[in-house]
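Exam prep: given the inputs below (a chain plus 3,4-dihydroxyphenylalanine), describe the expected output before reading on.
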Amino acid sequence: MLTQIDKLLKEVNGFSPDSKEELEAFRLKYLGKKGVLGGLFSDLKGATPQDKKSAGLAINNLKNAVQEKINSHKNTFDKVIKKSNIDTSKPVGLNSFGSRHPISLIKNQIVGVFKKIGFGVSEGPEIEDDWHNFSALNLPKEHPARDMQDTFFIQANPDLLLRTHTSSVQVRHMESVRPPIRTISPGRVYRNEAVSARAHCLFHQIEGLYIDEHVSFADLKQTIMYFAKEMFGEETKIRLRPSFFPFTEPSAEVDIYWGSKNESDYRITKGTGWLEILGCGMVDPNVLENCNIDSKKHSGFAFGMGIERIAMLKYGVTDLRLFFENDVRFLKQFSSL
Ligand code: DAH
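Solution:
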């Protein structure tokens, strides 16, 4: 037994681990539950009293040697790890701050443009009733123009729906504020549309409303022109195309010229150079009357635009879905704005 222990002692003394793992394997081999030392101690039980004494001493010696070996190397490995990974003299890194979402950036910018010419901001609920989203806006039940906006209804109450446009806020505002009115209403809207690079089931709009005495189409055109230049630059050209919205008469859609200067992808304007940015018109007298405003005395204009649309143009984003995925790699690019 003594020769066996002697052999083991030599092995222990000659052991020189290269890694923490190797050292751990060594520890388990000798000190583990079914390890070498445990085995030797149980062998000792069957030895003669004389042998017991000398072998006992030798085993203890061996055990101490193992322990020493472990202690000495454990420290060296710990030191190495400390040296390589933790530099306590290194300055603490700066906190990284979040950034505003591009939709908020554009919304704030649009709001700022209209605030400069005296518009205030108004808001309304996203869960809306039929009256404010449709009926008051000259879209009675069964009117075919309701199909222009594919609607999510609230099943528990057929009178409630997720608003399909922020025009609902015009109605709420006119019901509670007397002319003159100058307000813009930003907010989220919902439509039952398949999600693609160009459409989403939720998006954001800004609605504008101006009601006073003697407001004319020229005022509307001038206001839109001012907005387009503030937003896209002094050189921006706009054009108005006749259109139809039940809540305005006459109605128009506004295009800006995006042509050769800004256009890198000709699919954006389908080769025409013109790009639609908003819908607008003179508020239909029926809508004014629905909100208890005397349409003989007052007139006004309204307009509505999609914020994502403007953001895509301003930032050159070609896939609408990026605005809703909140991938930090996308959002980080707006951190300096
Ligand atoms: N509500 C319309 C839409 O979502 C946009 C719009 C068009 C708003 C003309 C208006 C307007 O106020 O006058 O498609």
